[in-house]
Design goal:
The protein is an alpha+beta fold. The protein contains 13 helices and 23 strands. Among the domains are: about 130 residues, N Utilization Substance Protein A, Chain:P, domain 4 (2-Layer Sandwich); about 60 residues, OB fold (Dihydrolipoamide Acetyltransferase, E2P), CATH 2.40.50; about 70 residues, no CATH class. The strands form seven sheets. The protein has a five-stranded mixed beta barrel. Strands 1, 2, 3 and 4 form a four-stranded mixed sheet that branches.
């Protein structure tokens, strides 16, 4: 008996990782519960369990008093001194009341209580192990997916839940795989502690930076703000707490090694690391990276920023489906309105007004172009009253050219430029008349105008 009991306690303690003292308390409480059920009493009893012999003894305990009010819990001083002459009021008198045989019901009850105490001790151990690790990254094994879309994971001896709102839509979870997750919360339920984990929370990205970037862990670099669209793109604002520390370079690492590890862990999610600045205008300009910003006007009352970017940077500043601007707004906490810089030519055109004669001339020019197209290239002159007369006049024709590396454009073996804007590699539209040539951007805006010239030795580029 002694070896069986002792071995069973040690085996349970080792397998369940439960302190042996907790199992002993569970066995003693189980015997007390079984005794009270068999004896039909609520008396105060104590159990002494001898692990060496395996013997169990039950003792009835009553308080020694001068006058007895509850015989089930109290005993008179005179009666106590008849058993123990040294008994004093307030002491406990113990009397052995161990039944000869607990019986089958008592043994079954004791077994159930023991198992319940073991489960409770295991739950308390799991809760104590993980309650202090909230906010940490843990390694989990993927088990299965339930009917509500939750993924059930195994974290050590505990069970974790990855809810749909903490999952990343672009990730695919497969049973048997291992992955790192953020421990968000430890809930203490009747069935045991439940771990709530996440891979889509901003705190997960923050912890990854703290693990991969020693400067952040040591405190020399601080993460000021994070904006994230899980699985797609994130923006992280950092600043240095020490002199001569490059916060952005520290996060990126040599040849991008540090940031690449984080990107790989997130399944290829793009991460922009920008420099935080106490000047909100500078901070918002940095947040819109990689787009170049010309100016930022702030409305402190409405927390709105009006940002002006070059025309060719407008789509980059806004991003695909507005993603770049949206993340910049989340990162800074400001509403950001983005518009492109208006060129002087476009501004003049918007402010220009026309009289009736000018409108007539423009209408005639439009009709001339339409008539030339409708008559297979035959040239016509259209007067102000709308009559057409055959003349030797050429309507301006539009062609496309690519800007060369020296910022010039070739037309009919002649080079024109350099252009007032850096447009190397871009495609422009050429409109030539008898005496001049207009160079327009692809949007139709006039970039420059040059007189027609003839240059020898130039080789025209291939039309696109």
């Amino acid at each position: 008996m002694k070896s069986d009991l002792y071995a069973a306690i040690n085996q349970i303690a080792a397998e369940r990782n439960i302190p042996r003292e907790a199992i002993l308390r569970g066995i003693e409480d189980a015997i007390i519960t079984a005794y009270r059920r068999v004896a039909g009493t609520d008396q105060n009893v104590a159990v002494k369990l001898d692990l060496q012999s395996g013997d169990t003894r039950v003792f009835e305990r009553r308080t020694i008093v001068e006058e007895v009010e509850d015989p089930a819990l109290e005993v008179s001083l005179k009666e106590a001194q008849s058993t123990n002459p040294d008994a004093m009021p307030g002491d406990m008198l113990e009397k052995e009341t161990t039944p000869a045989d607990f019986g089958r019901i008592a043994a079954q009850t004791a077994k159930q209580v023991v198992m319940q105490r073991i489960r409770e001790a295991e739950r308390d151990r799991v809760y104590g192990e993980f309650s202090d690790r909230e906010g940490d990254i843990v390694l989990a094994n993927i088990q299965r997916q339930d009917q509500n879309g939750n993924w059930i994971l195994e974290v050590g001896r505990a069970e974790a839940v990855l809810p749909p709102n903490h999952q990343v839509k672009t990730e695919r979870y497969r049973p048997g795989n291992r992955m790192r997750v953020l421990l968000m919360e430890v809930q203490k339920n009747p069935k045991g502690p439940q771990l709530i984990v996440s891979r889509g929370d901003r705190a997960f990205l923050r912890r990854l930076f703290e693990l991969e970037v020693p400067e952040i862990h040591s405190g020399s670099v601080e993460l000021k703000s994070i904006a994230r669209e899980p699985g797609m793109r994130s923006k992280v604002a950092v600043t240095a707490r020490q002199m001569n520390v490059d916060p952005v370079g520290s996060c990126v690492g040599m040849k991008g090694q540090r940031i690449q590890k984080i990107v790989d862990e997130l399944g290829g999610e793009k991460i922009d690391v920008v420099l935080w600045d106490p000047d909100m205008s500078v901070y918002i300009a940095n947040a819109l990276s990689p787009a170049q910003v010309l100016s930022v006007d702030l409305d402190d009352g409405q927390k709105t920023a009006s940002v002006v970017v070059p025309e060719k940077m407008l789509s980059l500043a806004i991003g695909k489906e507005g993603q770049n601007a949206r993340l910049a707004a989340k990162l800074t906490g400001w509403r950001i309105d983005i518009r492109s810089a208006v060129s002087p030519e476009a501004a003049d055109f918007e402010e220009e007004t026309f009289d009736d004669d000018e409108l007539t001339r423009r209408a005639v020019a439009a009709l001339r172009a339409e008539a030339a197209t409708a008559n297979d290239g035959d040239e016509y002159e259209i007067s102000a009253n709308g009559a057409t007369n055959g003349v030797e006049e050429v309507t301006p024709r539009e062609e496309r050219r690519k800007v060369r590396s020296n910022n010039t454009v070739v037309y009919q073996s002649a080079a024109y430029g350099p252009l007032p804007e850096d447009m190397e590699g871009e495609t422009v539209r050429l409109r030539a008349t008898e005496d001049q040539i207009e160079i327009r951007a692809d949007s139709g805006r006039v970039v420059a105008t040059f007189p027609i010239q003839v240059a020898e030795g130039e080789t025209s580029e291939e039309e696109e």
